[in-house]
Amino acid sequence: MNTDTDLLWSPGRRETEDSNIASFLRWLGTDRGLRFDDYAALWRWSSTDLPGFWSAVWEFYGLDAVTGYDEVLADSSMPGATWFPGARLNFAERCLARATDARPALVCVAEGGTPEDISWEELCRQVGDVAAALRRMGVGPGDCVAGHLPNLPQTVVALLATAAVGAVWTACSPDFGTPSVLARLRQARPAVLVAADGYRHGGKEYDRRADVAELVDGLPTVRHVLAIDRLFPAPDEPWSRRAGVAQHSWSALPAAEGPLVFADVPFDHPLWILWSSGTTGVPKGIVQGHGGIVLELLKALGLGADLRAEDRYLFLTSTSWMVWNFLVGGLLHGSTIVLYDGSPTFPDVNGAWRVAEQTGATMVGVGAAYLAAVERSGTHPAAELDLGALRSILQTGSSLPDSTWRWVHERLAPGVWLQSICGGTDICSVLAGGSPLLPVRVGRIPGPSLGVALAAWDPSGQPLAGEQGELVVTAPLPSMPLHFVDDPDGARYRASYFDTYPGVWRHGDWVTVHPDLSVVVSGRSDSTLNRMGVRMGSADLYAVVEQLPEVMDSLVVGVERPDGGYFMPLFVVTAPGSPLDDGLRERIAAAVRRRLSPRHVPDAIVPIAAVPRTLTGKKLEVPVKRILQGARVTDVSSAGAVTHPEMLTWFADYAGRSMPGG
Ligand SMILES: CC(=O)CC(=O)O
């Protein structure tokens, strides 16, 4: 039910008249003679007239002054759509195109430190020096440069320098275990490894030099290590002793001899490789292209999130989550991007908000789990900190409990525009999210993003209105993968998105699209709960269970048994001092029965010490389900890619001990 008490935020004059999307609508009227009464009408046009919409984005953002093209969409089949043949543009060049003296390009904060500004001029100079160094190492189109780096200014510089020379970038955050990093980077076959000596997190320093040596040993294609010695400086000490590998110190790189030259690459030239979470098999290397990413991030951040040049845009993320790339996309808008290298909960749970205060961040991106944790802490950031500059929060990763939507508006930053966004690595962007033209209501993503032909489908491919179905995208997007790494015939790519509905992208989430176009995502469809033929999203259960003050975290899975039975245990982490006794079990079951349905009541409610998650915060529903079905821990998760890996062994023991018929 959606009543007015659910309304948290409504567009004001700034949004309806001064936002980027308002300017876009005016521009469509004057330049194209197109008028739309509301967001819904604009979205319908944008997701059906693809050449019309994407050519409008192209012109509105001035790309026609950069390059021409033969056609907008030469082939619209999925997979394999052909966008903007004939166009040539370089992501790095576009990121540096709006350099200005007026504002910094980067504001960098190390955990416990003070913010440091890097000007656009300085950023361009550093990109030029590193690009020149890469060219001296013989790196160019067809090569890969890999980063083993935390969220440092050097990481942004290395990405832009790699793109500038036309090579492919990929990164793993150093908090990943070495086997996980190797499972990814081995596939990418990097020629150069850019690595930091360590990182700081939660008040501790982690030395990673030995891990870098191990990586170099495991990556026979690496010829050069570009070493960032910041925490443990020992410039003359090579980290790897492997023959044939040269180590260069980042801080000692010579200045470039000439101006920065950007490789002139076609629209679909590979830009970077992003990695799937790798919790259900070998991580998939998702390759996205220069043109598709430029266009998508201009549209998503500009027309969707209303990012502007004067914004200071912070995302709390490691370099392994696609939102880091989504953060760097802020440069395309001439915005200042804020890089925080550290834990959002250091020195206390409000660490991230302190960084926002220190840096004057105007738009802050966070994972849902972090927001919920701050809510639970009982602190009142709005009273303790000056978040006056903050205008918008981007929330993603998983669904937000209803209470947290309200808490953000009441206690974190009253008046702020909370944008819940859903998309992912696969497109490095947003499928559904906020719009300056749409109100924000509790529990609802305001609408599908422009250009995204999003729908809910039933198993036979029929669209569902106001009912939960598979999230599909029925028309191509420019940032869809060019291909996967090591997938020459595209079989892995097709199997990932196109096996259920040939020619239509199945994203792997359960979604409901309401008549007002608002969207509710109810969890991953590959971890669906299916009781007696009724499908239920795990997120619905979490939303109820995690509202109880005694429950800190939870995980639910539905296990098909060999005997045809179905077992649906709910695992809960209780708050200190709240044992999971019969009383609490009954309160949980009663809340689920009342707020959802008797069918949602779990078969067992079991205490656990922690919920294992991917390093980007997603609960490990599918791996746990598979363990409960008898899979070996090592077959369903890759070491170092999950939090609380010890819990996977716990689930294996539980499967042996407590599963019905087990
Ligand atoms: C934008 C997103 O969808 C991010 C994520 O959940 O991985």
TrEMBL record:
Q: Provide the coiled-coil residue spans.
A: none
Which UniProt keyword terms apply here? ATP-binding, Ligase, Nucleotide-binding
InterPro entries listed in its UniProt record? Acac_CoA_synth (IPR005914), ACAS_N (IPR032387), AMP-bd_C (IPR025110), AMP-bd_C_sf (IPR045851), AMP-binding_CS (IPR020845), AMP-dep_synth/lig_dom (IPR000873), ANL_N_sf (IPR042099)
One Gene Ontology MF term: acetoacetate-CoA ligase activity
Domain Acetyl-coenzyme A synthetase N-terminal as annotated: residue spans? 39-95
Database matches in PROSITE patterns:
AMP_BINDING
Q: Which residues form the AMP-binding enzyme C-terminal domain?
A: 544-618
- Superkingdom is Bacteria
Q: Name one GO biological process term.
A: lipid metabolic process
The record ties this protein, via SUPFAM superfamilies, to: Acetyl-CoA synthetase-like
Q: Which residues form the AMP-dependent synthetase/ligase domain?
A: 98-476
Family note: Belongs to the ATP-dependent AMP-binding enzyme family.
Q: What is this protein called?
A: Acetoacetate-CoA ligase
Q: Which organism is it from?
A: Streptomyces phaeofaciens
Lineage of origin: Bacteria, Bacillati, Actinomycetota, Actinomycetes, Kitasatosporales
